[in-house]
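Hey,
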Amino acid sequence: MMAKRLTIFLIYLALSLAHSYGQSSEAGIMLGFSSYKGDIIHSLFDSKGFKPAAGILFKRSINNHWSHRLGLSYGTIAGNDFDSDDPFQLYRNLSFRSRILEGSWIWEFNFFQYQTANPASTWTPYLLAGIAVYRFNPKAPLGDDWIELQPLGTEGQGINSYNRKKYRRIQLAIPFGGGIKFKLSDRFGMTIEAGARRTFTDYLDDISTTYPKKDLLLSTSGPLAVALSDRSPDQLNDNNNDRQRGDAAHKDWYMFAGIQLSYTLSKKYNDSCKPFKQKFR
């Protein structure tokens, strides 16, 4: 319900911003990569997890130091235990991929005076923070097919004796990060940015807690769930529950990073942030 309300709010905000495009507003695109941190890949900056990503954005500058933007981003996150040198992960033998579709509202703070429409602007480092709603849907390979994992309840979600609910595939996240902005001309600007997303789920990769007991999983969700829940070498001979599958103590993260190219919709700009003028001039 909260994610739906935030989506409606972002749409309303987009319409509101569109009516004020003359006040140093910009439209742009983002090309780069997405990555994830979780139970398979343990760093957002591990190149094994980099996948192509793209996005569009609409930004309005409040003044030379503050701006906010709406964005729509799309990318892939993925991981494979086979790529690890950890004996536990190699034995566990799990893998996944998931498409991420995100709508975000992000505020930016420029350390130096900057607006693409401002003739005095050249470049600036900046920080960003905001809120996002995103959809994910982890899948695992089985033969030539990719199977959705959430409906299967691979860790016993939906089995009464485990008291584990199936996770929601539309959730909220907190983006934060930073980058550098460069002015290319009076109309065009370029940004290099990396923005991590703090999520409130441990299931971006469908891995969090322990293996369920196989006979219960088989009776509840069927043989496909059993096959994708445990892919370790001796899984057919192991019917014990509570064997460790993931680390529930830490939530998962994802990131969008890359280059943004923006076009200024109006040469007008707002230069009203007087307290910062002398300090950063």
